[in-house]
Amino acid sequence: DTEVTQTPKHLVMGMTNKKSLKCEQHMGHRAMYWYKQKAKKPPELMFVYSYEKLSINESVPSRFSPECPNSSLLNLHLHALQPEDSALYLCASSQGLAGEGYEFFGPGTRLTVL
Amino acid sequence: GQQLNQSPQSMFIQEGEDVSMNCTSSSIFNTWLWYKQDPGEGPVLLIALYKAGELTSNGRLTAQFGITRKDSFLNISASIPSDVGIYFCAGPVGSGGYNKLIFGAGTRLAVHP
Question: Which residues of chain B lie closer than 8 angstroms to A99, CB-CB?
Answer without folding.
Answer: 30-31, 92, 99
